[in-house]
UniProtKB/TrEMBL annotation:
Protein name stated in the entry: SCP2 sterol-binding domain-containing protein
Record-annotated SCP2 domain positions: 63-154
Gene3D superfamilies, per the entry: SCP2 sterol-binding domain
Superkingdom of the source species: Bacteria
GO CC entries: cytosol
Lineage per the UniProt record: Bacteria, Bacillati, Actinomycetota, Actinomycetes, Kitasatosporales
Amino acid sequence: MSDGAGTRDGIAGLDFSAVTPEEFAKIVKSLSPKEIDEIARDGELRARILAEVFARMERQFKPETAGSLQALIRWQVTSAGDRAEAVYETTIADGVCTVGEGRSDATPRVTLAMGDADFLKLVSGNSSPVTMFMMRKVKITGDVALAAGLNRYFDIPKP
């Protein structure tokens, strides 16, 4: 998948619900940031991918690790050009993880902002959150320690 159209068409044809987290991680690993940005230009496809990623957060949550953690995590996935920022919120409370699309009136404990390619690399286990922060690929507002440890609360694939 080296040209943008072929990559987009290949991803567009996927039934994301049938792709395992490990398969998704391998797909993301095989894509360059430029290819991911090309995919994200298709607003409908971008929305499908983001919706599936966030739906999986609830399923991949590890309640035994979260213990008594109470946190609202706001995700801002930014895009180049005229594409709108996508906002999702992950709430962890009482050993349960719920995800909602959009920005609530609640104050998040931490907000993570990053571009499409960096977001997909992060959630698929293809990039280290600490490295991304140090390289300024992710902007963190609020509880930096919580942000640095988020990966321990989710079963993230090893690509």
